[in-house]
Amino acid sequence: MGNASHWDDVYRRKADQQTSWFSPHLSTSISLIKRAGIMADVPAIDVGGGSSTLVDDLLDLGFEDVTVLDLAEPALERSKARLGARARGVHWVVGDITSVQLEPAHYGLWHDRAVFHFLTDPEARQRYVEQAWSALRPGGHIIVATFGHGGPEQCSGLDVVRYDDDELHEAFGARFEKVGAEQERHRTPWGAEQEFTYCYCRRS
């Protein structure tokens, strides 16, 4: 999925509105979180959250224990600057989700928009799945979004793996109960459309 220097360079060269994944709000993710009835008192982690505004929206919804993890420290710094004083109430982690140490059985919500599809190595995908299984508490919710089959084959110069919702659930396995799925036509800041697949599961 590229190393830290690759993503540091992306965020140093481009403003948020110059990246294909930019969205003022992750409306599909927020809709799934609300429909799932996830309580705001559970710890939440946004994997690959970078400079996304999901953390802002989670705080607005009353979430008090929010972690944002990303390889790119410059992306996290943007979020901190945007949040101002509220950033002090967020846990910021610079690291690789396939190897970072997370507290076991801690999170009630795991969110990932567009990290998993960068994992082209099956072993890296398995490490990610094991991380999610370990870090989520029993019954915890996981929402993962990737490019769909109608989406691009590369992003930021890196290959991706595209999924439909059944394939995405299969990548996580029977230990995660599939609850729902969504397709999204994401419009980039320059007007192109990208197909995203969202899969929402619960840890059994």
What labels would you give this structure?
seven-stranded mixed β-sheet; 6 helices; 9 strands; two-stranded antiparallel ribbon; Rossmann fold
Strand order of the largest sheet: 3-2-1-4-5-9-8
CATH architecture assignment: 3-Layer(aba) Sandwich
* Structural class computed from helices and strand pairing: alpha/beta
Query: Low-confidence segments, ≥5 residues, pLDDT <50?
Result: none
What is the string of helix and strand elements?
HHEHEHEEHEEEHEE
Characterization of the model:
The structure is a single chain. This protein is α/β, with parallel strands linked by helices and 204 residues long. The chain has a single domain, classed as Vaccinia Virus protein VP39 (Rossmann fold), CATH 3.40.50.150. Helices cover 29% and strands 29% of the residues. It has helices spanning 4-13, 27-35, 54-60, 73-83, 122-135, 165-172; strands spanning 44-47, 66-70, 90-94, 107-113, 136-147, 154-155, 158-159, 176-187, 193-203. It has a seven-stranded mixed β-sheet with strand order 3-2-1-4-5-9-8, sandwiched between helices. Strands 6-7 form a two-stranded antiparallel ribbon. The radius of gyration is 16 Å and the shape is globular. 38% of the residues are buried. The mean pLDDT is 96.
